[in-house]
Structure formats: C-alpha cells, structure tokens
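Quick start: read one record
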Amino acid sequence: MNRPSYADILEANNLMQSIGDETYWLCLTRTVQESKLFPVSAYIMFSYVNAFYRYPSLLRKIEARMSAEEIADRSRNMGIKIQNSHMGWCLPAFYLLGREWLISLGLLRPQDALEDVIYVLDFWKRFQLSWHRNSGHRTNREYGHRAQILPDRRLEIFRDDMFACEPGDDLHAAAHAFMATASQYGFLVSCESRISLTNSGPYRIDDRHEMLVRDFMDMAECSLPWLDGVAAEVPYNNFTVAMSVRDCHFHLVDDWGSFESTPGFTADKLAGVGLYTSDPLTEGFVPLGMGSREELTETFRELNDILKDATNKLWMRMADWTRDQLLEAGALIYFAVVKDLAHVAGVFEVEDWMEIDPRAERFRPLFNDEYGNVALGELVAGLTFPNQQASPFTMMQHSDRPTRMLTPIPYSVLAGEDYVPTSGPIQRGTTTLDPKVDRYCTSRGRLTLAEYNRLAQEHVPEVCSDKYRYLCETWLKYNADTPLADELYKVEQRQSRTLKDRGVRKGEA
C-alpha cells in the first residue's frame, strides 16, 4: 500500500479503540474460561502471537481471490465459522492483543507493522459492514448487543418451517438432547473453548415469541487434524438450529455469541425448532429431517448418538496428548478461528492455518500455566502493562481508570518518523500434532482439499449472483411487487416445506 494517510490512521485508531472498549467489557462481564485438561490461558497467549505474525499475509492471500465484502455476503447465508464471535471480535482482537503483548515486551514499537495494522482493521471493517448490512451496524455492540443478521426471506422460512414442541413431547426432548451433546462435543473439539458454538438474533416472531439461531460448527472431519477418524461418522460439518422461544426476551446477544434473557432461557421456553446444515458449497441453509415432525425427531436422536460416540473417541485421543500438543492444538484452534474465510475463497492450505509460525514459536518456553494465566489476566483485565497506561486525566470506558486496552498508532509517522511497514510474509511453520488427512466432509461428500478449493472457487450461491446480490432489504421494501423480488424469494424458498414457490407475501417484505 502507499504511505498511510492521516485519514487511514485516524480510522485505524478509532476502530482499535472500539475493539479495546468491547474487549474489556466482554472479559469482565462474561464467564471465566478454565479447563482441567488444556492450558487455556497459555494457549490463548500463544495464539495471539501467531495471529499477529500470520493474519496480514493470510488475509491478503484471501483477498487476492475474493474481497472481504463478498465473503461476508456469502457467509451471511451460511452457518459456518465466520459468525459474530469469530469475525466481530476474534479476528481483530487476537491480532491486536498479540501486537499489544509484543509492545509490552519491548519487541515492537507502536508504529511498527503499521501497514499491516491498517490493512487488518480495514479488512475487518469491510467484512463487518457487509455482514451486518441488514441492520446497518458494524458490530453487535453498536446494536445494543444484538445480532440481527438474516434477511426477511430466510427468517420467514425458519419461522414457518419449524415444528412446534412442548416440554415432555418427543421432539422437545430430542432437540434439547442434541443441543446439549453438540455443545459438549463442540466444546471439546475447540480444546475446551466456546468457538464452535454461537448464537444470533433475537428476531421478533410475535408478542410472545422470539427466534434465536444457534450454530454448531466444525463437527465433522474438517480442517482440524484431531477430528480425522474421530468424526468419520458425523455426516455434516455444520448444524444450524432455529428456535422459537416463548415468553422470554433476549436482551443481549454479544460479540462472543453469548446471550442473556429475561426471564432466563430454560428448557420449558422452547416452543419450536428447525434443523439445517450449510457450507461454502451449498445454496444457503439446507433442511435436515424437516419433512415431518417425526423425521426431525428421529434426525435429532440419530445425530445425538453419533456426536456422543465422537465425543468419547475425541476424549481418548486427547488424553494421550503431551502438554506441548495440548498447548499447540489450543493455540491453533484459536488462531484458525477465521480459517473459513479461506474455505469460502477456495484458497485454504493446511500449512497456513495448522502450523505455528517460527516467530511465534520462539515464545513457547514462556507459556507455562503460571505465566499464561498472569499475562492474559493483565493484558485483558488488569491493564497493568506500561504501554496500557494513559494520562492520569483519562477515564476509560467501563472502568474510569487511566488506562486503555490497545495502543494507538502514533500520528508522528505522518511527519516523517520512521516505521516498519509489515511483519513480513508467513514463514514455514511447525506442528507436533498428527498431520492432517486429506479428507474434508462437505455437502458434496468427502473431498480432497484440492477438490474442495476448486469447487469453492467455482461455486457462486444464486442469491449472491450479480442478479440478486445487491437486492437489499431497503430495495425489497419499495419493490416487493416486482417480478424480480418474487424471483429472489422463490430462490430462497426452493427447499422450504411450507413456502416453496410462494414468493413475496405482500405486507411482509
């Protein structure tokens, strides 16, 4: 890029401050993450450094094939691992927290990797604006901590196709059992973290009901090497559960995909449910077992049994890992939280996402449990590093203390102060984990990576084609009576049980 302008740095610092404020709020108000098996704090710190050295090159590689905005438009129609929590917070925060820690060690100046910092934040901003285009927000935080992502035509299908259920009936029990097992399995898949599960919404159904959409991701044999063989029987990599919830208001769905409600969301509040899958090769959300109430009940039961078996196999595999392998797997699952960007663009390579960069590897000896816990705590909550101290007159948002989470870029570079533009290209990494088997579970069967990348590059979901991509909710509001609007709705409705070929329902567009 050309030498950054004043506007470039002003915007980057604004975005950085917003991310820092939200990170502090999230870390203080959400639950603490601990594990008896994984060195969680240590692997989180390890992941931050790997992200700092690798994200800029990987995002540029992705955008050489597909822009951030187009990936967001496509992923809005899929329940894959590019959701609110992954892109809304993880992408920029992991990168910037790695930068902040390196600054605290004296290994980086605030103006170093200047062009990388501006680019990563610009990529994030463009993705987020496109992803949130239906609400006009950039993050959940800007929407009062809610995530209304999906368009009207998809929400109609989720609402009308879901099956009603009540506490005590077979479907209600099967749905809850599946979600409990999928949550436990996803927690283990993600090295006892929560990044394989997220929530979006709420969406209003009527005066008593709201819809929450829950996504379970990376469930089958995918890009994570520790699922090879373990998840061989899992038939789909991603599951999306649309839920109607009665007499329960979700007043918060944050940028971690966590929610809070009044009253609390308990099992008896579930009033309706639907099940779907999707990936970069589907035409949006594909219904699973949605032909009848009985079929859906049986589908939930079968998947529950399969995921229980996979959970047991995964426990057995991880129980044999060394501490280095536990540390590394955790660091990679965090670092690779946005790897599906590469899958959508068709440029995924295992060595990009499943290896530790040698520049990050230098820090492995530091990451014992004690140092990991202390360093992470001070970085995101204590804010005690010298670089995080601000003028004594400062009152930080949420704390009123003279601190800030993330160090801004100094404007002095505009007056000629030297800076290092980039951290440089990716260097060949290493891993102590078993090599990835060349097998990926997709909606088109088990594929090699070469096949998966080729099909992803060739595939354009019809709703993202030039004909329909820019037909936004505002356009539909004023053009609902046109043949083109009717066509768009019918494209989305092709696999709907109740709305197939219905088109636009006047008064609801």
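The chain has a mean pLDDT of 95.
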